[in-house]
Design goal:
The complex is a heterodimer. By secondary structure, chain A is of the alpha/beta class. Chain A has one domain (about 5-100): Transcription Regulator spoIIAA, CATH 3.30.750. Chain A has helices at about 25-40, 55-70, 80-90; strands spanning about 5-10, 10-15, 20, 45, 55, 75-80, 100. In chain A, the strands form 2 sheets. Chain A has a 5-stranded mixed sheet, with helices on one face. The longest helix of chain A has 15 residues, at about 25-40. Chain A is globular, with a radius of gyration of 14 Å. Residues about 105-120 of chain A have low confidence and may be disordered. Chain B is α+β, with helices and mostly antiparallel strands. Chain B has one domain (about 20-165): Histidine kinase-like ATPase, C-terminal domain (Heat Shock Protein 90, 2-Layer Sandwich). Chain B is built from 6 helices and 5 strands. Chain B has helices at about 5, 15, 30-45, 50-70, 130-140, 160-165; strands at about 20-30, 85-90, 95-100, 140-145, 150-160. In chain B, strands 1-2-3-5-4 form a 5-stranded antiparallel sheet, covered by helices on one side. In chain B, strand 4 (about 140-145) and strand 5 form a beta hairpin. Chain B is globular, with a radius of gyration of 16 Å. The N and C termini of chain B lie far apart (about 35 Å). The chains are: A alpha/beta, B alpha+beta. The interface of A and B includes residues 64, 66, 67 and 119 of A.
Chain lengths: ~120, ~170
């Protein structure tokens, strides 16, 4: 389980490098991430651009991490891919997390991956 | 190929005349094997159906198959053997028809009853209970029955409107 963790003084930047947050790794993902955020006690900016897929167990892990932070510390999710965004939206969890389109790094803003269906 | 694979349900005779792309796999219900299978499904239908449909298919199949894995019997006698899932997906004109059977535990009735999201309590958010909500939300014509030691689940993942029009 790999994360890139960077302390940016005011907050913690965490880049998730796992392409899938699914039932195979949800428990480990939750435990590792919870350990990181609890230890640092800072608002967290998570870059999710590398995550192609997340299922309900992955969502459960994200909620557990949110709950491990005190309510006054933000957990901001950046650059959700369409498959990940769908799970947050359908479960209404997009109202619980602060979801932002761009990556947390000072990269140039990029348009989100088009969600348009391919024609057949 | 075992003889039982050939009698797998879910493919109407009418559909076979249209020679649509399909996927068929027999797998052990284990999260890593489910993950590999989903990646093969994606590979199989990439270019055949749109990304949005593929994403919805992958999510539903993950929820269904990981449920089987998660609720695998843990009794001493059966510990050595994982439930076996048969998965079959066929592309139809309006969507992807899926049929899954498994020899895991029986599905509780309330999985198939209309579901809403687990209650959102601000200071104690639910960490689970989303799986069957997502399955019900993303599928059409969801049906289930159990016969002897197997579960049978069938449903359709509709194409997005643009794909149907195309």
């Amino acid at each position: 389980m790999q994360f890139i963790v960077e302390d940016a003084e005011s907050h913690l930047n965490i880049t998730v490098t796992e392409p899938r947050i699914d039932a195979a790794i949800a428990t480990l993902f939750k435990d590792k991430l919870r350990e990181i955020v609890v230890k640092n006690r800072k608002p967290v900016h998570m870059d999710m651009a590398a995550v192609d897929f997340m299922d309900s167990s992955g969502l459960g892990a994200m909620i557990a991490v949110r709950k491990s932070l005190p309510e006054n510390l933000a957990l901001v999710l950046f650059a959700l891919t369409p498959n990940v965004e769908r799970v947050f939206r359908l479960t209404r969890m997009d109202s619980v997390f602060d979801i932002q389109p761009r990556t947390s790094q000072s990269r140039t803003a990029q348009p989100r991956t088009a969600q348009k269906e391919q024609r057949e | 190929m075992t003889p039982s694979e050939r009698s797998d349900p879910g493919i109407g005779t009418r559909a076979s005349a249209l020679t649509q792309p399909m996927f068929h796999r027999v797998l052990n219900a284990h999260p890593m094997i489910v993950r590999d299978t989903l990646q093969d499904v994606r590979q199989r239908f990439r270019g055949e159906v749109g990304d949005d449909t593929l994403g919805r298919l992958e999510l539903v199949l993950a929820e269904v198959m990981n449920n089987v894995a998660e609720h695998a019997p843990l009794s001493q006698a059966e510990q050595a053997r994982l439930p076996v899932i048969h998965l079959c997906i066929v592309r139809h004109s309006s969507g992807l028809a899926c049929a899954l059977t498994d020899d895991g535990v029986s599905l509780p009735d309330d999985c198939l009853l209309p579901r809403s999201l687990p209650p959102m309590v601000a200071d104690d958010l639910p960490e689970g209970g989303f799986g069957w909500f997502l399955i019900q939300d993303l599928t059409q014509a969801l049906c289930y029955y159990r016969e002897e030691s197997r579960n049978y689940l069938a449903f359709s993942i509709p194409f997005a409107q643009m794909e149907v029009d195309a």
